Amino acid sequence: MPIAHSACPDAFELSAVHKRYGAIPALDDVTLRFAVGSTTALIGSSGSGKSTLLRVLLGLEWPDQGEIRVDGQTLLPAQVLALRRRVGYVIQEGGLFPHLTAQGNLALLPHHLGWSKDRIRQRAEELATLTHLPLSVLERYPVELSGGQRQRVALMRGLMLNPDALLLDEPLGALDPIVRHELQDELKAIFDQLGKTVVVVTHDIAEAAWFADRMVLMRNGKVVQDGRLEDLCQRPADPFVTRFVQAQRTLRGSP
Ligand SMILES: Nc1ncnc2c1ncn2[C@@H]1O[C@H](COP(=O)(O)OP(=O)(O)OP(=O)(O)O)[C@@H](O)[C@H]1O
């Protein structure tokens, strides 16, 4: 469904984007817009192009055809470094540098940008409060952290520079169900509180619906449906949408 244009340019826009890896179409004619301050969940089966979509938005990959616009401007290679400072990117299992403590991971980019130690420490403390992480944990190395703590640190790292947008690639994929549930609550509260543009990739449709009203369902590099959960359930654009929705198990015996 096309989204109405407004006076404010979109945070991100893909126009007729194609990206192939050899014979594999990772993105196949994708046109999407992400409004400033909106939260969108990208869902779809494995290999459907979700991670590639985030990577082209960040300039980590370039489309073979089509255009990416960020805040209304065509994304060019010369702008990529600046873009990465304005967009927090968090991947599954955090992607933290193992040879640095959590604090060292948080400090890396701000230090490179010339922030003072005090400013880095103060920002880390603010974010530890936001993500409910005890400060003592920041002295530990990633291997000494639980999966949930690693994801909290990774999220803090993504937020250190107070980015305009957050791109999250399966941020909770590797966590046990209880920690995942807790972090779903916390992330939702953080999204609501910070009001940033968020695009979050998940395989889990319930998690997608928890985070976002808008879901973009992908398959084989194409957008199959872009809508709300009730659209996917009640007005599926394709039989695959119904299969995808029905593939989520409900618990037998639960109330
Ligand atoms: N660097 C690469 N080289 C070759 N093929 C790639 C590369 N990156 C992705 N692909 C292929 O492109 C397709 C889309 O991959 P992508 O990682 O974007 O999917 P995804 O939906 O994020 O999958 P998952 O949910 O399993 O992470 C897949 O078939 C994948 O194997």
From TrEMBL:
Transmembrane feature ranges: none
Molecular functions (GO terms): ATP binding; ATP hydrolysis activity
Entry keyword set: ATP-binding, Nucleotide-binding, Transport
Keyword tRNA-binding in annotation: no
Domain spans labelled ABC transporter: 12-245
SUPFAM superfamilies with a match to the protein in the record: P-loop containing nucleoside triphosphate hydrolases
Biological process according to GO: quaternary ammonium group transport
Highest taxon above the source species: Bacteria
Name of the molecule in the record: ATP-binding cassette domain-containing protein
Species of the source: Dyella monticola
Lineage of origin: Bacteria, Pseudomonadati, Pseudomonadota, Gammaproteobacteria, Lysobacterales
